[in-house]
Specification:
alpha/beta
């Protein structure tokens, strides 16, 4: 397989499953964590390694090291691997997803932005989701008429903050996730609820048109629920560990324990909350975006620009949602007609935002 984003949490868990089940790793793609990458190279012996910064190639313990986005796409097209695990962060992940599908490869997808921005132009029949929410929906689907699908959210770093404090939230505050440790951008997306909006868009592209919603479940034990037309509801319950969806994506079938079963007596109680637009203003545009999923490219470009400005200290935390909503109102009539137009529109938007 090819692993894009090997030193992130998804990549680390992917390589753990690869080691456990003796799966071959042909290509590793990583960012700046060279020490961890070198450990992965020693353990998995890939044929090609790609990093972000060409100036650091000499730090990598491998004879065949490349750098940059073009190298990623070219290597995907040339590799004989049949599987690509895409755990890259941001819009950067779309082109590799498209290249993998174009070359007939199957994609285990953790890069939300691929579907959020390019879902209309990607063959989702060759995509296996490894987000726990979409895996949960897939796991629950049966031959019964579905009324609606629900995914869950942790609520992010500010789910329990007084509303009046949110304007003063710092970058450091956004990283204090109540349930786990993730990368910087995705933790900010969790705090704004952009992450969950993106996951609803992903679900729409993966499972088709329908009713989709999200609620907060504070323990992150329930990942997805399906409400059937007969009035019954099923829930996918598992400890939050990405090895389970990754194992199914890579192996297709799992017949041995990957996780410990959830002990509901030990859990004791679960708490559910609605997603309040006063706390998460981005939720005001949820229905519009789900009705018009092509708007995902606008939301994503605005979000990435806003996060860059927030990290740089140029805007406040609550301004992230304001910029996204402003961009959507101003550019809502922009609708790409091809994958290449998605890239053109993304570039244009970033210059104007």
């Amino acid at each position: 397989m090819i692993v894009l984003g090997s030193t992130g949490s998804i990549g680390v868990n992917t390589l753990a499953i690869a080691k456990r089940f003796g799966l071959n790793v042909d290509v590793l793609v990583a960012g700046n964590n060279i020490p961890l990458l070198n450990q992965q190279i020693a353990q998995h012996n890939p044929g090609v390694v790609i990093i972000a910064d060409a100036k650091r190639i000499h730090e990598v313990n491998h004879p065949n090291v490349l750098s940059g986005e073009d190298a990623i796409e070219r290597t995907i097209l040339e590799s004989k691997s049949e599987f690509v695990v895409n755990a890259l962060v941001g819009f950067l992940g779309l082109r590799p997803t498209a290249a993998a599908l174009r070359s007939g490869k199957k994609v285990a997808l953790a890069n939300k932005e691929s579907l959020v921005t390019g879902g209309a132009f990607l063959d989702t029949s060759k995509i296996v989701p490894i987000d726990s929410e979409h895996f949960g929906l897939w796991y629950l689907l049966q031959e019964r008429p579905v009324h609606s699908m629900t995914i869950t959210a942790s609520g992010g770093a500010f789910r329990d903050w007084p509303l009046e404090r949110l304007d003063r939230a710092t970058l450091e505050d956004t990283q204090k996730h109540p349930n786990w440790s993730m990368g910087q951008k995705i933790t900010i997306d969790s705090a704004t609820m952009v992450n969950k909006l993106f996951e609803l868009l992903e679900a729409r592209w993966l499972f088709g048109e329908g009713r989709y919603n999200a609620i907060i479940e504070t323990r992150s034990i329930i990942h997805a629920l399906i409400n059937f037309k007969d009035g019954s509801t099923t829930a996918h319950i598992a400890y939050a560990d990405m090895k389970l969806p990754i194992a199914y994506a890579l192996l297709g079938k799992v017949d041995e324990p990957i996780l410990q079963p959830v002990d509901l007596v030990e859990v004791g109680r679960l708490e559910f909350r609605s997603i309040d637009p006063k706390r998460y203003p981005i939720w005001e545009i949820k229905e519009e975006v789900l009705r018009n999923p092509h708007l995902g490219v606008i939301v994503n470009a605005a979000n990435e620009v806003a996060i860059e400005r927030f990290i740089a200290g140029e805007i406040g935390f609550m301004d992230i949602a304001k910029l996204i909503i402003w961009a959507l109102e101003r550019y809502h009539d922009k609708k790409p007609a091809s994958l290449e137009e998605v890239f053109v529109l993304d570039r244009e938007l970033r210059k104007k935002l």
